[in-house]
Amino acid sequence: MQVAHDWWKDLFDETYLQTDARSVCDDRLTCREVDFLEKVFGFSKSSPILDLCGGQGRHALELSRRGFLRVILLDYSDYLTGAGKKRARDEGLNTAFIRGDARSAGLRSRAFRVVLIMGSSFGYFEDESENCKMLAEAFRLLAPGGELFLDLPDRDFVLRKFKPLIRHRVSEDLEVMRTRKLKDDVIYSREVVTSSNRGCIRDRTYCTRLYGPEKISELLNASGFGRVCFETEFMCRQKQGEFGTMTSRMLVRAEKA
Q: Domain 7-153+211-256: which topology?
């Protein structure tokens, strides 16, 4: 499969929020994930937090609802950041939304105590050096002693359960079919979204790189991080059905020494 170098620039839009709603628009799932972060890692309410590649703000907004005072989200999608801003206004939250590139955020160095990269938002580049730029940027943005939390698909689970074809009905109108190919720990997916009323509304190919603990530790250490540890069963939804790479995930914690 051929994938465009910058496929991620315009994929995350209104259609994405429909096709992936069962994961990225599930408020109960988001609450469970933030519950886990609060319980296990005990963030301070006053800690400056950056939600990198945070989309429409499902984690950032939930943190703000819980009284976290300094939450900033950065994402490239104008549509998603716009949707997040509107929801923050509607709920009276002070969450800040910024449109930008996670490899070069344009924010002040050492400004954050916590950087989150949630929802399998890491590993979108075929060229591994581009993924490493995201880690280097997270390192730059963290204050000394700050921590990065990286939410990744459970590589071994994905490989065991890999299916070359996945399809599900989003609504009475929309159906999604993903044809997938696995090569060198990269999943290439062709996504075709069909509307009963409008016909084909999306036919795009994208990729996601998988990481095991050894590989991601290597990349984090090379970026300057230390004390890397794992919550290998951060979220597992296997009993609830098939959610692609969002079915079972691990959470990686790394510290800027």
A: Rossmann fold (3.40.50)
